[in-house]
Amino acid sequence: MKRISIDPITRLEGHGKIDIFLDDQGDVANVYLQIPELRGFEQFCVGRPVEDMPNLTARICGVCPEAHHMAATKALDAVFHVDPPPTAKKLRELFYSIFFATDHTTHFYALAGPDFVVGPTAPVAERNILGIIHKVGMDIAGKVLKMRRDGHHLIEMMGGRKVHPNWGLPGGVSHGINEEQRREIEQLGHDAIEFAQFSLKLFEDVVLGNSDYLKLVTGDIYVHRTYNMGTVDGNDCVNFYDGQIRVTGPDGKEHAKYPAADYREYIAERVEPWSYLKFPYLKKVGWKGFVDGADSGVYKATPLSRLNAAEGMPTTLAQVEYEKFYDTLGGKPVHHTLATHWARLIELLYAAERWVELARDSEITGKDYRVLPTETPTEGVGGVEAPRGTLTHHYVTDDRGILTKVNLIVGTTNNNAPISMSVKRAAQALIGKGKAATEGLLNMVEMAFRAYDPCFGCATHSLPGQMPLQVTIRSPQGQILQKLGQYVTTGPDPLTLSVP
Amino acid sequence: MNDEPKGKLALYWAASCGGCEIAVLALNEKILDVDALFDIVFWPVAVDAKVHDVEEMADGSIDVCLFNGGIRTSEQEYMARLLRKKSKVLVAFGSCSHEGCIPGLANATNRRGIFDTVYHQTPSTENPDGIEPQSKTQMAEGTLHLPVFYDTLRTLDQTVLVDYYLPGCPPEADRIWDAITAIVGNDLPPPGSVIGAETTVCDECPLKRNEKKIKKFYRTWEIIPDEETCLLEQGLVCCGIATRAGCGARCPQVASPCIGCYGPNKGVHDHGARMMAALSSVIDSDDPREIDRIIRDGIPDPVGTFYRFGLAASHLRRAKPTDGNGALSKR
Q1: Paired residues of A391 in beta bridges
Q2: What is the ipTM of this complex?
Q3: Does any CB of chain A come closer than 8 Å to the CB of residue B161?
Q4: What is the pTM of this model?
């Protein structure tokens, strides 16, 4: 069979490669998305003092260190059987909301935005953040830079550092905020709300206002009917920091709702020999292969899934957008993968609103942001919603708090199977049937994974090099049949280019 | 400077977390200044130049390459060798390429241990057939390949010759800018040097210091420290005493001890050994048994405490490889 290798896939965090196999008619026979990385945090964290985990696991991913820092900190609460005081919980959620707004901004503008704002088949040299700046102007670029700068500034103010904060402790956080800091946080939060509304308007104008893009979003190239997962509060509304994990079926009905600590009853992970990354699935439904539907345990944990798995947003402005989202796309649940970008911006608005809400909370400048644990450490699970999906940290310690067991199921790992399926479906719809696999079409295959905002660095507890796309099509004998434009290459890893 | 031709700059990430990329992006508007000074010929996170573009460049045609990440797989080693060959100046950028960083703690174990834990023992893994990822897998449609996962994580200078080092996990944006201006102004220390401060975190820490005399070390969850006073004096193992400055002592300012991410100061090779020497000088006892107890009770994981960031670059480098499947490097 002929093979098209997209190696590595680009504009995501981390490394992956796609192998597309073509049959004799030139149609897509099968597609594999491989993750070639592993670092082994679950092994080398054993023997470490458990209180180091917020700092150690932050190094799983420098793009979303706050997510690992926070999941680890919550796991420490559980390990030490300590309940942080209200001020501590609110400070953590405030910090986390600021992080979410900052991270979603990065993804929309730097990674995914170019496909829409510049165009899915636009010239490669323009299909990046600089292309966006050229297209929309420095005015908008300035807004994006400000949003990111404000976010990092506040993360550093609260957590110590812009990247890799050093702040979380069992029972609370190491440091609080004063009134002057609180005022600045609130003020920048109002700017963030404005920025989120601006971004939604931009999406509306550029994507929904363009009939070609709208067809892409609502068409059948990028669609999978799977289960959806997300954390919800007591009213079944979306929450990033705390709550119960809710899973709804392809029909939108509740399949399960459970505290993060019970994850093992609901989630299992499968190993395949051709990828370093495991494939989680719903244990009670079972693994039926890379297929969607109610009988397959494949589930998604993304911004779209969080909206699908909840009954609404807990803040006013985001709720209005939530309703508009489902009205426009024909009701709940939405299974169109590219709608994830829209869902992400609704979450950006929610994060900004929550940020302001918490900055105005009367307890937020309180001095009781920490209590000392008094019980012997044992075992605990901490869960948060990472921007890329439900994140679970599970630790077991000896009675001195030295780790004896570590298990991590991170945001992107949840989505390993659906991402593979989405990429295959897009490839089958776009390539073959007599059409040559142009660079633009292959980028549209990549758009299938980009919607998930995957972080394969996180997923493999590693973040290796992101290298550009290269495509070589070879015959079964290894003869080069087609080299695609600027992608002509001999490849960084000769192994990836060999053919059976 | 505007009359001179622009230099050529490359940035790359290997086995790292992406935090170094975020730190570069945290230059914010100064990114435009970098763009004015250099043609960025390769920066996968932001620029669409390809690996084949690099392969086709003349050797030495990149003026400066900022390389972050350690070397854990065959693919990363290939990229390190390629960029070394193409670059006049290769900078080990950030803790991972400089000294291995947190991923270097994996050198206390080995590939077999990692595979056993990740693919067999973690409680959510369901793997009744004992499957493990393979460098080659025969599928119905053809063979799928994965890069080789090495037994040991190596620093960049254990793989190729490195000209300069920029420490930090990640380096602060201000230090990145300092390094860029040093390179552009040709105001560089001798090759092989760290571009950075030559003092310790203590020297830039605003917390109040008195005499350091420790009778007991505390774990961070055991005490609530006074936020104005030196954390080490209060018995928290703060690594600032033996760690290179450059971060602005930010962690102690939110009442968290320095964890040592900028690595050893000038003239020190082994960060952990230096930390141990520094701590031993503040323990308030002459009785060997009491000293043993103070250390054993307060510092239960010396490797993870003293070599948190520097194990791969230290004299220890890794735990002794054991016999058996996968324990020895296949390099």
Answers
A1: A384
A2: 0.94
A3: no
A4: 0.91
